[in-house]
Amino acid sequence: MMLEVKALSKRLPDGRPLLKGISFDVREGELVGIIGLSGVGKTVLLRCINRLTEPDGGEICLRCDGEEYRITGINGHKLRDIRRKFAMVYQDFNLVGRLTVLDNVLIGRLGRISTLKSMIKRFSLADKEEALEWLSRLGIENLAPRRAETLSGGEMQRVALARAMMQGCQVLLADEPVANLDPKTAEEVMGQLVEITEKNNLRTLAVMHQPELVRRYCHRVIAIKEGIVAYDGKADIDEQVLAHVYDKASGASKVA
Amino acid sequence: MNRSSLTSTTRLPALPKWLRFRYFAWALGIGAFVGAAAYLEFSPQALAEGAPRMINFVRQLFPPDIKVLPSLIAPALKTVLMAAVATVMAALMSLPLAVMAAGNTEMPKALRGISRLLIEVARVIPDVVFALIFITAVGLGPFPGTLAMAVHSVGMLGKLYREAMEEIDPGPPEAVKAVGATRLQVVRYAVIPAALPAMVSDTLYRFDINVRNSIIIGFVGAGGIGYRLIVAMRLFKYQELLMILLLILGIIWVTEKLSDRLRAAIFGQPLLR
Hints:
Low-confidence stretches of chain B: 1-5
Number of strands of chain A: 10
Low-confidence stretches of chain A: 250-256
Number of domains of chain B: 2
Number of strands of chain B: 0
Oligomer: heterodimer
Mean pLDDT of chain A: 90
Shape of chain B: extended
Largest sheet of chain B: none
Strand content of chain B: under 5%
CATH topology of the largest domain in chain B: MetI-like fold
CATH superfamily of the largest domain in chain B: MetI-like
Strand order of the largest sheet of chain A: 6-7-8-3-9-10
Largest sheet of chain A: 6 strands, mixed
Number of helices of chain B: 12
Radius of gyration of chain B: 27 Å
Mean pLDDT of chain B: 88
Structural class of chain B: mainly alpha
Radius of gyration of chain A: 18 Å
Strand content of chain A: 25-35%
CATH architecture of the largest domain in chain B: Orthogonal Bundle
Order of helices and strands of chain A: EEEHEEHEHHHHEHEHEEH
Helix content of chain A: 25-40%
Distance between the termini of chain B: 60 Å
Helix content of chain B: over 70%
């Protein structure tokens, strides 16, 4: 019952290797932080997992409900079907600003209703109720009729979380989910991220830049350095390891 | 840097090379302009000699013939309606074409090429030519004129809609795609909402242009205020002509104000709470 990433590799457009065989598992209900220097390929790694970016090699496999879904090597509607199980939240939230909050959450359901019905915004009452339910669980049901572009950053990220949950996702990929939030809001959103992950048995990967938030909220941490997994273990990561990951001790540049 | 500033204080620098050619370049430019004007049979002398006749003509325009105003209302309305119907039809045709033509909607390459070509063709062919084509099918009248404007407007609206779609932030469409949505769903839920303000603005702008164009289209038999204009000119009814021109001025002023108001009403204030 886990997400498996095996020997994932990806080259930059100029041919230089960026990810050189990344392997790890994420268990159900586990929030795994991904850390590493800027430009090391953390975001690319996340995007390879739901194939927004095409990996050059390796395998990604999701085991859930007694079935095994291979994400690599499929295309078209099969890929779309699988993508529903992978939700993504972003540093800049990526809500559709001119739609209401409710519509933004309902977007999570698009993969499950017919294209024709969705063209005239025909969501079922049950879908709308579920959307409101997620909003209220995140404490923002009063925002439902507001236009998304009028919200604050913290509110936007919660709407993005509600959209992700509307997908009925198994895997949650969070790309620097709290990087654009103030410290207090960041703590709140991280708290909700852990809660959602544990309650819904998600496998959550979060690219993070604040080691103290990783220590406090993540169950485990994976550090990437020079294209490989440099550390995979407890979230309460040692200062020494951290210094190694961020090249503090050596002072060496990542530009090799 | 330092050295050159030093020398400039001690000694006047020699005239740069390009400066020596400056007067020559000016002479060349002025000469080209005068030559072109002469080729176009410009004659200040003829203009000066004819000035009294011109003043006489302008004098004949006054006073505007207010008595004809009631008979102009119906043709004026026809002209505005032609523009409105043509703009709506053009918008309806342009939207699917622009979706197919835009580079960020991931439509099949063949469709993209065909729709771009159609938009280009619609723009290159003047609406008067489209009008002649449709007149051969359905005869004279406002119908072929309106069709002609609609088709020609697709050339501009299709291109502007496409640009509006291509200029949006790529984040939200990608987020919708990541949900497992189809390409059409991405267009419906992320691309069009983001591009809509620009698209509405483009459409109102095109409506302004079409009001002007429907006057011209009236010359070639589509009727409306343009037809009255050409008739008044041919019959030397200059006072009626001035009345028509004043009315056209009024129509254009009103449509501009209206579309400004509409724009402000839609986008001036975000819909809060």
